[in-house]
């Protein structure tokens, strides 16, 4: 394969994989009363509260879509806005106890999917694939190919 064919195949495969991950995420999130997008935003702030722009950067989605979802999550009591000591106007989004409980309800089914993938691929091969995807994403970020 030429470099251009490799790039095209990587992109098309990534788009298809993203669609599959989103479909699985919707199925996993629904019983917890979440959507995949809500779960994605809550997941971004589980380790620590972040501003909307920080969530957007981490998730690779637009700031506007994160803002819309954050407002919905706050309205439903799954997240809250907190003061940001680093920036007066850019509030931090933080998960609430109710939001954390919703995310935790996903965990058993999430573990089952992870186990099935690891069983199919083998744990070592699965780790290699994740490492390769992580390296590809970091390289794309470093090269700033989208600017």
Number of domains: 1
Number of strand elements: 3
Percent strand: 5-15%
CATH architecture: Orthogonal Bundle
Please tell me what the overall shape is: globular
Q: Please, how many helices?
A: 6
Distance between the termini: 26 Å
What does this structure look like?
This protein has one domain: Winged helix-like DNA-binding domain superfamily/Winged helix DNA-binding domain (Arc Repressor Mutant, subunit A, Orthogonal Bundle), CATH 1.10.10. Helices cover 71% and strands 7% of the residues. The protein has 6 helices and 3 strands; from the N terminus they run H-H-E-H-H-E-E-H-H. The longest helix is centred in the first third of the chain and has 27 residues, at 3-29. It is globular and about 50 Å long.
Write the layout of secondary structure elements.
Elements: H1 3-29, H2 36-45, E1 50-51, H3 52-59, H4 63-75, E2 79-82, E3 92-95, H5 97-121, H6 123-143
Antiparallel strand pairs: 1-3, 2-3
Helix pairs in contact: 2-4, 3-4, 5-6
InterPro entries: HTH_MarR-typ, MarR/SlyA-like, WH-like_DNA-bd_sf, WH_DNA-bd_sf
Protein name: MarR family winged helix-turn-helix transcriptional regulator
Domain HTH marR-type: 3-138
């Amino acid at each position: 394969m030429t470099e251009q064919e490799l790039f095209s195949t990587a992109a098309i495969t990534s788009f298809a994989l993203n669609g599959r991950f989103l479909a699985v995420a919707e199925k996993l999130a629904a019983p917890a009363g979440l959507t995949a997008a809500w779960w994605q935003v809550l997941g971004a702030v589980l380790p620590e509260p972040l501003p909307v722009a920080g969530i957007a950067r981490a998730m690779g989605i637009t700031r506007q879509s994160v803002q819309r979802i954050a407002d919905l999550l706050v309205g439903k009591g799954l997240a809250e806005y907190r003061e940001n000591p680093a920036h007066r106007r850019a509030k931090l989004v933080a998960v609430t106890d109710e939001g954390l409980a919703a995310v935790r309800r996903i965990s058993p089914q999430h573990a089952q999917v992870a186990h099935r993938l690891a069983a199919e691929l083998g744990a070592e091969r699965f780790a290699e694939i994740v490492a390769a995807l992580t390296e590809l994403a970091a390289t794309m970020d470093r090269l700033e190919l989208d600017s």
